[in-house]
Specification:
The protein is mostly helical and 217 residues long. The chain has helices at residues 2-16, 34-52, 79-90, 94-114, 130-148, 160-174, 184-191, 199-205; strands at residues 70-71, 120-123, 126-129, 215-216. The strands form 2 sheets. A two-stranded antiparallel ribbon has the order 1-4. The protein has a two-stranded antiparallel sheet with strand order 2-3. Helix 2 (34-52) packs parallel to helix 4 (94-114). The longest helix is centred in the middle third of the chain and has 21 residues, at 94-114. The protein starts with a helix and ends with a strand.
Length: 217
């Protein structure tokens, strides 16, 4: 739960510190500007709030690792993917997106801190403990932090400990380890298809290169 708070706080702080002009820059999510990604984070924060107040009384069906499924790369045809840019544009000035993320995001952060890690909650037709749910979201926040700063070299990077935790989770989800020579950031970017490996990196990846990317859904 500490890593959830650390990764979420770092991501929200990075958004809050962005100059308005950066909201019109591309993000690491294909087809989305930074403003679109921030709008998606608002919806993510709402999902966290909804899940934390959706108790379940049955046995868990997934944990922090099996919560994520490996899916096909997005095609851009998902109606929600198309809706996000329209919602983001409706905010107009970046200050309103910042305000909404800070408002809903702070509430999600407080709810996570107050929640019982052993309690069970339901989401996506699955049941898991609060602790596992929040651990799963460390991957979400860390990857989206990398998406946020993909074309913004001056923006703050994710904390080292959350990068390491996200990499470890991705390796468990994929059932394979990335080369030790890869930094946590490179393992996450290359592993999820956010960056194409160089020829040298492909050589180090060896047979693993053919299995990439590992897209989480």
């Amino acid at each position: 739960m500490e890593l959830f708070s650390r990764s979420w706080t770092a991501l929200r702080t990075a958004v809050a510190e962005l100059p308005d002009a950066d909201f019109a820059q591309p993000s690491g999510c294909r087809g989305w500007l930074v403003r679109d990604l921030v709008c998606h984070l608002v919806i993510d924060a709402q999902d966290v709030l909804i899940t934390l107040v959706t108790p379940a009384d049955t046995e868990p069906t997934v944990d922090a690792v099996t919560y994520w499924k490996l899916v096909e790369p997005p095609t851009g045809e998902d109606p929600l993917d198309a809706l996000i840019p329209r919602l983001a544009a409706a905010y107009g000035e970046p200050q309103w997106l910042k305000f909404h993320l800070d408002d809903v995001g702070s509430a999600a952060g407080r709810a996570a801190e107050l929640a019982d890690p052993a309690a069970r909650v339901g989401t996506r037709d699955e049941v898991l403990t609060v602790g596992d749910y929040l651990s799963a979201y460390v991957v979400e926040w860390t990857l989206h932090h990398l998406d946020l700063i993909a074309h913004l070299p001056a923006a703050a990077e994710p904390p080292a400990e959350t990068l390491s935790a996200a990499r470890a989770s991705l390796e468990k989800i994929a059932g394979t380890a990335f080369p030790a020579a890869f930094s946590d950031t490179d393992a996450l970017l290359i592993g999820t298809g956010r960056r194409t490996p160089t020829d040298a990196e492909k050589a180090v990846l060896d047979d693993l290169a053919a299995e990439l990317p590992f897209v989480l859904g």
